[in-house]
Amino acid sequence: MPFGSKEKAYNNSKSMAYLTAEQALADYAVLLTDLKKNLSSEGSPVVLFGGSYGGMLAAWMRLKYPHIAVGALASSAPILQFEDIVPSTIFYDLVSNDFKRESLSCFQTIKDSWKALEDQGNGQEGLLKLSKTFHLCQTIKTTRELSDWLSSAYSYLAMVDYPMPSDFLMPLPGNPIKEVCRKIDSQPDGTSILERIYAGVNIYYNYTGTFDCFDLNDDPHGMGGWDWQACTEMVMPMSYSEDGSMFPAYKFDYASYENDCISSFGVRPRPQWITTEFGGHNISLVLERFGSNIIFFNGLLDPWSGGGVLKNISESVVAIVAPLGAHHIDLRPATKADPDWLVSIRKSELDIISGWLLDYYGARRGDLLQRATPVNSAAS
Fold first, then answer.
1. Which residue of 144, 209, 270, 313 lies most exposed, with the fewest beta carbons within 10 A?
2. Which residues are catalytic?
3. pLDDT in tens, 210-230
């Protein structure tokens, strides 16, 4: 926090202007260089680890600062989720698939709930009833407030659909989508669609049972900084597809997106900047020729995997894919409940990184020996 506190740093667009991926990477470069100097370890190799946005930074830093780090593990890093590199519907299609995979009836209930929400929220009396059904602390003014809250829960549930309990975003049981769908499907006959939806979403927002009501203006995930970046450089077009999605059809509207950013922060997005700064188009061709020593991990239950690198690009730019993995599960703390496939993936990552270090020390040793050899010895 360069301004002393989060409150001061996030106070206005003048201070938040420093919150960019480029600035973050430059800060890391300076920090690592100074640390190595202060610790008298200039010869020590650095390996970068990051998940999600941090995974994007890890991959980009390896490309931008190859003299700073010998390699990077970029876990669940959606570096292709920009412009038209991947379909704009891919994220929410994958969220939908996660729910359909657990229960077709659960998927259909969620799909039907959006119309039920709109029908009931038509008028002040309906909005009051919705607020009571979902145990909201204040009466909502529009149904969009509630639909956004529900949509966020489904997206985050897909991200953290881990096989073991976690508290990464919220305290949750293992296989949380299975638990949400069990709640939705197991309500007594006669339970309305929206009451079923509340029972399910309550698993996400209130698994511990500590909340009496929900404040939709509260940001439990601390996403204010990401909202700023999404309105400046992290412009990721998102749409809902007409077929196969549990969300109502929606096509990304850049004009509306831009207006929201101007209203929220007084800034206009730069939708082409990230690919200009870090690349993304023709990624296989570019990284095969100019990249090295990057591991891209993706779990296919994670909706962000739709914007990730899922195939090996070269011998040293490799993709590790876990069909049952969720958001950067490889970087989650190890537990006794970890499935064998996860233990195996972590071992594979460590083996690859060990190879990078061996190559580094081998090259460094050869360089030192070469410099120590007398100049006239070449003739002997």
1. 209
2. 52, 302, 327
3. 989 999 887 777 777 899 999
